[in-house]
Automatic annotation (TrEMBL):
PANTHER family: CTX-RELATED TYPE I TRANSMEMBRANE PROTEIN, DPR-INTERACTING PROTEIN ETA, ISOFORM B-RELATED. Keywords: Disulfide bond, Immunoglobulin domain, Repeat, Signal. Residues 1-20 form the signal peptide. Pfam families: I-set, Ig_3, V-set. This is Lachesin. Residues 23-135, 146-229, 234-338 form the Ig-like domain.
């Protein structure tokens, strides 16, 4: 290409007239692509410049940046010891490369830069010009407004989760389930690339946290979590459907129940007393707790409740119910408390290693265990 230009220039020179002196922009102005904050360099190589001057012009902001090596913009602040704009000229034979340097790139520095040769004695529309592109890459950002934070839908409904992002180049947006499961699409897959995740015939199994990641290869990628809640009647399950404990030794029993529902159900523990079923309230005998810490064993929207039956007595051996209610309905599970001869559970006193070889020692151990049981089980 440049050989061809040379040849053309050469031919013109041979023909021997005034056009032979016309300056030219040889080569393309190669596009420059740099991340935000970095330095961009555009090169304009000219031949036969003579006493004409090279101008750099930013089309997007409609301003002349430089003429020859002089910066023409109003503001050319120092940035880390160097100016925002600079032009460096390298000369080789009859060629000059005018390199425009733009430091600390901002988004508004992007766009089209025109290298113009201001040909003396010619109107601007007859100047030699060439365009170059400066792209400023921007890491992705998720736009909170149009992005779903929490989506609440009825069972069986159709809806979608949305994730809107900006970034240059425009990022790829990928959905996954944060528990690593498959996405509830017509053909379930682990990931789905689109700003919108369609949800068809939503059911309780679709509830949970969904993650969208916007990535355009400019670090760091942006990430967002969206939660899908499906309105439904409560579902209850127990950790163990029967729990044993010994009586009359100040041991307590722990009955556990896991509840799911949306809106969040109210939970009541009940117990059977003969033919009656009585509600249990937090008192000296019973303690109800809702586990607040995130539990690995819990699925989306599940709550873990425990009922502690303190100081288990003979009349505590019966059926217990955890009953959950919300506007969509109610559910219950049963846990049986039964009698054992030994202490059960993690809070039982453990025997210290017995190396008793004298009567005194074994008496000591017996007393010690007694004290321990008292301390642990009360
Ligand atoms: C312009 O030239 C400089 C120095 O040779 C080089 O570092 C830079 O990458 C060039 N710019 C483009 C867009 O090719
Ligand atoms: C949801 O979409 C599916 C498939 O397009 C359709 O069969 C179903 O009737 C829709 N459900 C509702 C509640 O609109
Ligand atoms: C989006 O993903 C495709 C395929 O993996 C990739 O070729 C393309 O470069 C990505 N786009 C961006 C902006 O990262
Ligand atoms: C548990 O649910 C069953 C079936 O819905 C119901 O018949 C029973 O009365 C409920 N038990 C309690 C204690 O609420």
């Amino acid at each position: 290409m440049s050989c061809f230009v040379y040849l053309a220039v050469f031919t013109l020179v041979l023909c021997g007239n005034v056009f032979a002196q016309d300056p030219e922009i040889v080569d393309e102005i190669w596009p420059e692509v740099q991340p935000l904050g970095r330095t961009g360099r555009l090169n304009c190589t000219v031949a036969k410049l003579g006493n004409n001057m090279v101008e750099w012009y930013h089309e997007d902001s409609a301003q002349t940046i430089s003429i020859a090596e002089t910066i023409d913009v109003q503001l050319n602040p120092m940035m880390g010891g160097l100016k925002k704009y600079e032009v460096r000229v390298r000369r080789k034979d009859d060629r000059q490369t005018h390199m425009l340097i733009v430091r600390r790139l901002r988004q508004q520095d992007a766009g089209t830069y025109i290298c113009k040769i201001r040909v003396v004695g010619k109107p601007e529309n007859r100047w030699t010009k060439k365009k170059g592109q400066l792209t400023v890459q921007v890491a992705p950002t998720i736009r909170d407004g149009p992005t779903t934070a929490v989506l609440e839908v009825s069972n069986g409904a159709n809806s979608s989760l949305r994730c809107q992002a900006t970034g240059i180049p425009y990022p790829n947006i990928t959905w996954t389930r944060s528990d690593g499961g498959l996405l509830p699409l017509v053909n379930p897959v682990a990931q789905y690339r689109s700003p919108e995740l369609p949800l068809v015939n939503v059911n309780v199994h679709h509830m949970g946290v969904y993650r969208c990641v916007a990535d355009n290869n400019i670090k760091p990628p942006a990430e967002h979590l969206a939660e899908l809640r499906v309105f439904h009647a409560p579902i209850t399950r127990v950790v163990q459907n029967s729990v044993g404990q010994a009586q009359n030794r100040r041991f307590s029993a722990k009955l556990e129940c896991i509840v799911q529902g949306h809106p969040e159900p109210t939970l009541t523990f009940k117990r059977r007393a003969g033919i009656e079923i009585l509600a249990i309230s937090d008192d000296d005998k019973f303690e109800v707790n809702k586990q607040t810490t995130d539990n690995q064993n819990l699925k989306a929207m599940e709550q873990w409740y425990t009922l502690k039956v303190k100081n288990v007595q003979a009349n505590d051996y019966t059926d217990y119910y955890c009953v959950a209610n919300n506007v969509f309905g109610s559910a219950n599970s049963t846990i049986k408390l039964f009698e054992t001869t030994e202490c059960q559970g993690s809070n039982c006193p453990s025997l210290p290693p017995s190396r008793a070889c004298s009567t005194a020692a074994s008496v000591f151990v017996t007393v010690f265990v007694g004290i321990l049981s008292y301390l642990y089980c009360s």
